[in-house]
Amino acid sequence: MNNNRKTHWESVFTNKKPTDVSWFQEKPTTSLEFIRSLNLPKDAQIIDVGGGDSFLVDYLLKDGFENITVLDISEKALEKAKKRLENDAEKVTWIVCDIVDYQENTSKYDVWHDRAAFHFLTEKNQVEAYLSIAAKSVKNSGFMSVGTFSEQGPTKCSGLEIKQYSEYSMTATFEENFRKIKCINENHETPFNTIQNFTFCTFQRK
């Protein structure tokens, strides 16, 4: 694990309220629409990579999904989500881990969701590790949704450098093991009334 990266995120989630960070969404509409469009059974295995204290898990539980995993490098972020969910937190699997160190080596997940974790991986070896782990972790014909800053979006987030992606570069990055379904560009309005442009791509495991 990159200890500097972990220290950074523990500090962010210790010192800032949800509305103090640019990625806050009261309702993660795009992510929900994608997952709902798949018409999955309620026992589908769903992982939210870099989920932090996102509200996606709240809405998935309300939708009746029974096998949700939230993975994040920050233990503090997951603690916040657990506290918010109260007893419902017991229905979720929580994993404190840097995604590039994740050891899931079975094709387990029906859905791999990642909004704004992947773009923090700026080094080739990190990207390769992520791609390998995703390929091992998603079931054949399973689905993936990845959201990153677009080429019209910011170059940094939370003081860290990120890697921007277009539809073309995202598709090329994942094409060995994942077939593109569609990509969209979307503006995210931050709590500070600024705009961040995202590339969201959805894929299916080959």
Shape: globular
The CATH superfamily of the domain at 114-206 turns out to be: Vaccinia Virus protein VP39
Number of strands: 9
Low-confidence stretches: none
DSSP helix fraction: 25-40%
Separation, N- and C-terminal Cα atoms:
29 Å
Give the CATH class of the domain at 114-206.
Answer: Alpha Beta
In DSSP terms (H or I, runs of 4 or more residues), the helix count works out at 6
Q: Strands of the biggest beta sheet: in what spatial order?
A: 3-2-1-4-5-9-8
Indicate the CATH topology of the domain at 114-206: Rossmann fold
Mean pLDDT: 93
Structural class: alpha/beta
Structural features, described:
- With 206 residues, the protein is of the alpha/beta class.
- Among the domains are: 48-97, no CATH class; 114-206, Vaccinia Virus protein VP39 (Rossmann fold), CATH 3.40.50.
- 30% of the residues lie in helices and 30% in strands.
- It has 6 helices and 9 strands; from the N terminus they run ααβαβαββαβββαββ.
- It has helices at 3-15, 29-37, 56-62, 75-85, 124-137, 167-174; strands spanning 45-49, 67-72, 92-96, 109-115, 138-149, 156-157, 160-161, 178-189, 195-205.
- The strands form 2 sheets. It has a 7-stranded mixed beta sheet, sandwiched between helices.
- The protein is globular, with a radius of gyration of 16 Å.
